[in-house]
Amino acid sequence: MTDIITTSSELEILWYCLPKILIATICGAIVGYDREKKNKVAGLRTNILICVGSSIFTITSLLLAHYSNSDPTRILSTIVTGIGFLGGGVIMKTEDKIIGMTTAAFIWVVSAIGILCGMGATLTPIILTIGLILVSKFFERVEKYIKEKNIRKD
Questions:
Q1: What is the distance of C-alpha 99 from the center of its chain?
Q2: Is residue 71 domain-resident?
Q3: How far apart are CA 55 and CA 117, in angstroms?
Q4: Burial 37-59 (b: 16+ CB within 10 A, else e)
Q5: Among the listed ranges 2-6, 20-24, 141-145, which one has the minimum average pLDDT value?
Q6: What is the pTM (predicted TM-score) of this model?
Q7: Maximum distance among all alpha carbons in the chain?
Q8: H-only helix segments in the chain
Q9: Residue 4 lies in a domain
Q10: CA dist., res. 52 & res. 113, Å (int)
């Protein structure tokens, strides 16, 4: 059996991968920094690794499809499954509440952004990352307002 990738094509693949991984690193860092500031469990390193890992698996899937005529959606679907498992691991039930749902949702969305990076999108993942942070901050304030209003009623 021969290798799919030769040494000469490996440099081409590296130049193909690096910009995608850089964008994924930036997107993961933006989300991770915001989560780290709030002292959340999934912070800077975790979000970078999730975004970059999803990007690398996507790149690998597309390269396999190119070099061996395989179905790229097979690896993409396993990313979603794996991220679901990872997200499920951060959800905890205490006596009176469930915590970690937002962290699990962030993990899920950051992975999707990483998939976009691996597919070659550059502007879309950055805009979605910034949008994710802005929407999260907005609804964090809305939740705080609702909770304060409910406390005043009691």
A1: 20
A2: yes
A3: 6
A4: eeebebbbebbbbbbbbbbbbbb
A5: 2-6
A6: 0.90
A7: 72
A8: 7-37, 44-68, 73-89, 101-118, 123-153
A9: no
A10: 9
pLDDT at residue 2 in the model: 64
Strands 92-93 and 98-99: antiparallel
Per-residue pLDDT at 129: 98
- Residue 141 structural domain: 22-147
Tokens for 144, please give them. Answer: 């705080």
Q: Is 6 helix (H, G, I), strand (E, B) or coil?
A: coil
CA separation for the pair 62, 72 (Å, rounded)? 6
Checking if the pLDDT of 131 tops 70, the result is yes
Quick one: DSSP state of residue 91? -
How far apart (Å, rounded) are the C-alpha atoms in residues 39 and 110? 18
Question: Using one digit for the tens of pLDDT, what is the confidence trace for 51-66?
Answer: 999 999 999 999 888 8
Is 17 a member of any domain?
A: no
